[in-house]
TrEMBL record:
Highest taxon of the lineage: Eukaryota
CDD domains xrefs: KH-I_IGF2BP1_rpt4, RRM2_IGF2BP3
Name assigned to this protein: Insulin-like growth factor 2 mRNA-binding protein 3 isoform X3
Provenance organism: Notothenia coriiceps (black rockcod)
PANTHER family reported for this sequence: KH DOMAIN CONTAINING RNA BINDING PROTEIN
Pfam name, any one: RRM_1
Gene this protein is translated from: igf2bp3
InterPro entries on file: KH_dom (IPR004087), KH_dom_type_1 (IPR004088), KH_dom_type_1_sf (IPR036612), Nucleotide-bd_a/b_plait_sf (IPR012677), RBD_domain_sf (IPR035979), RRM_dom (IPR000504)
Amino acid sequence: MNKLYIGNVSAEASEEDLETIFERLKIPHSGPFLVKTGYAFVDCPDEKAANLAIERISGNEELFGKVLEVAISVPKSQRSCKMQIRNIPPHMQWEVLDGMLAQYGTVESCEQVNTDTETAVVNVRYAAKDQARLAMEKLNGSMMENFALKVSYIPDETAAAEGASGRGRRGFNARGTPRSGSPGQGARPKMQSDIPLRMLVPTQFVGAIIGKEGATIRNITKQTRSKIDIHRKENAGAAEKPITIHSTPEGCLNACMTIMEIMQKEAVDTKFTEAIPLKILAHNNFVGRLIGKEGRNLKKIEQDTGTKITISALLDLTVYNLERTITINGTLKESNKALEELMTKIMESYESDMAAMNLQSNLIPGLNLNALGLFPSGAPGMGPSMSGMPPHGAHGGSAYGGQPESETVHLFIPALAVGAIIGKQGQHIKQLSHFAGASIKIAPAEEKDSIQRVVIIIGTPEAQFKAQCRIFGKLKEENFFGPKEEVKLEAHIKVPSFAAGRVIGKGGKTVNELQNLTCAEVVVPRDQTPDENDQVIVKIIGHFFACQLAQRKIQEILAQVRRQQQPKPTSGGQPPQPRRK
């Protein structure tokens, strides 16, 4: 039997009232309703009926002015390590879900439940009861991409045999049935990768790739189960045209190799004597990690595959086109192997970035990630167009809305990383400044043997976000932090001396709340002497999103102080001036 707990029941509600709701919604139940003060119980014939009741009634049905809550009834003695999470966004990637669950402990299994709903449902088992209890407290009712998660315990006796054996990736054990795509996609095969494969082909071979009346390209599409776009009208007169392939990683690889074979055959038929290297396009956000510190990652791929790989210069980038061209020279077999390794590296970087972004983006209210250009266009809803169209906000708009004021942040980086941030002949810092729309300068070293240097960033909140994000990412790419080590930096912002007390709060209450909320260390050094502008320093130490959230929260406090400092109009005086937005 599957017993349901019905909560938030009005004192006026009767067994007949609840039965009427079940009958109207065509939800079977196998016994009478046991109505208590404020709640009730009922048995359902099977798990499907219980899930249907939860889905249709919980949070959706009102009885005598109270919205009913429905969950599986689990006695306290059976509340152990297993829980069910419902209302998961249908397009959430498994990696994001894994990362969210792993925050609360070791996940031994995470298996999808097949339902008829658009949102996804998973059963999760933690290694310990306290971990499951913490996850229940933190996740139930929390918002994920505008969906409120619903979490309930699963009776341990009904699922004792579900334990998994063997260790899986990222500390997860085996999951039972294989998963693909996102929880909302169920067991259906994932037909499209999150990042399309983009390649460049010589313009003279486009006709051969398309074939007579499109027969060749249709055949490639059918055989590889891909969606292929040949951008013939882009860059009129250019020697090369981009092709975008949407498929699974394997489908992208097969389609790319088929196109290469067609071009080589056409070259023989037309007596084209020049070599035809494989050229692909990759978003600049991933290139640093492809190359690795001192080019180690790229050299290893070259050694493993017998190819020669070159990457276009940063100088070729514009704020509207953030792709770099990767050229692979080698035989078809060698190029295929190199491409497979490159695609794996790119996907790992993308999944890592997306997991962090999806988990943390809601920490900065109003931030429009579409305007930031941190991800390639193939990522759903992320990044600017790669076809030359300017991203949202490129003509004066802002990801934050309005016209926010400029801010100054001093970001401390390892002294050895200065060269990586500046780049050859200063090209990297110029490109970064142009991309972020911020002034970025490296302050001179205070001492000869300083182990840290200060990056001075001046710009709007959006510019700060973009610039600091790239700097944190660059330090990770260049291996200034270990592969499993989180990049944590110290940032200084200045606040008016009279406002420092507001940041600290009575008895340190505000600064403690800031630290709990942001996971950053926030310090207002005591006994500071204000500078010539009557300002003092606030230190923020943490990972990128922690630093960003702390900066935003402190700026909110300062804005509130400024509003309170504005003179109030007298009854006979001039009308109040509009507040600056």
